[in-house]
Design a protein that fits this description.
Number of strands: 0
CATH superfamily: ACP-like
Distance between the termini: 16 Å
Number of domains: 1
Largest sheet: none
Oligomer: single chain
CATH topology: Non-ribosomal Peptide Synthetase Peptidyl Carrier Protein, Chain A
Strand content: under 5%
């Protein structure tokens, strides 16, 4: 049960960040929205998003994990963050 609540907390923080980042965006944002294909994240915004994730969740994202697949959707990012938190 703790893991589910932890996932929900992380996912909601990510959702809030992305919603604020792109408040005028017309694409509905849910946990399975492709953040790159939808235009919510791009090559510049992903750098800010990575900095947010590191600061917000107290993690260090290793360079070798910086792939699109680890940042594709809110769900994927939340699980990725949790895996780095141990």
């Amino acid at each position: 049960m703790v893991k589910v609540m932890e996932y929900e907390t992380v996912a909601k923080r990510i959702e809030a960040y992305l919603a604020a980042l792109d408040a005028d965006h017309q694409v509905p944002l849910d946990r399975e929205t492709d953040l790159f294909a939808s235009g919510i994240l791009d090559s510049l915004r992903v750098v800010d998003f990575i900095a947010f994730a590191e600061d917000e969740f107290g993690i260090t994202i290793p360079n070798w994990t910086l792939t699109l697949d680890n940042f594709r959707t809110i769900s994927v990012v939340a699980n990725f963050v949790l895996s780095l938190r141990g």
